[in-house]
Amino acid sequence: MTELESGRVPVRHIVAVEVDGDEYVVWRGASGELGSAPRWCPHLDSDLTEGTVVGDDLVCTAHGWSFDCRGHAFKRTEAGRVDPKDDIDTVRIVEAGGRIALSR
Ligand code: FES
Q1: Which of 60, 74, 83, 86 to mutate to test the pocket of ligand 1 (most atoms within 8 A of CB)?
Q2: Is the pTM of this model over 0.90?
Q3: Which 3-state string (H, E, C) describes 50-71?
Q4: Ligand 1, from 39, 46, 52, 86: best to mutate by most atoms within 8 Å of Cβ?
Q5: Which residues pair with 92 in a beta bridge?
Q6: Is the Cβ atom of 44 under 6 angstroms away from ligand 1?
Q7: The pLDDT of residue 21
Q8: Are 2 and 69 a contacting pair, CB within 8 Å?
Q9: Which residues contact 96 (CB under 8 A, 6 or more apart)?
Q10: Facing residues of 28 across strands?
Q11: If pLDDT is split at 50, 70 and 90, which confidence band does 101 have?
Q12: Are the C-beta atoms of 66 and 72 separated by less than 8 Å?
């Protein structure tokens, strides 16, 4: 398990974390919801700490794959079509008392 202070993940910020020896990112969406994903994009391994948060989704800036807070990956085309991708590995997130607990 990994713990960090809630203040380390403000809205629209992405933080790299290690949970049980594996690398992940955690982000906080516009609604305040927290999401997680493997640190390295499942498409072509870009560092997702360099992504952007759009709404509650993390978007990889390399080729536009997006990740919601429930472990779903997708790509939104320029025409607005949403193409689902395989689900991703996530960590369990519990936030209470100003702390975020991450576990697998
Ligand atoms: S490497 Fe992330 S979308 Fe291509």
Answers
A1: 60
A2: yes
A3: HCEEECCEEECCCCCEEECCCC
A4: 46
A5: 103
A6: yes
A7: 97
A8: no
A9: none
A10: 34
A11: very high
A12: no
Q: What is the pLDDT of residues 38-72, one digit of tens each?
A: 999 999 999 999 999 999 999 999 999 999 999 99
Pull the structure tokens for residue 11. 């809205």
Under 8 Å between Cβ of 63 and 76:
no
| Rounded alpha-carbon distances, angstroms, from residue 62 to 1, 19, 24, 45 | 30, 25, 17, 9
Fold of 2-103: Rieske Iron-sulfur Protein (2.102.10)
SS3 17: strand
Q: Is the separation of the CB atoms in 93 and 100 below 8 Å?
A: yes
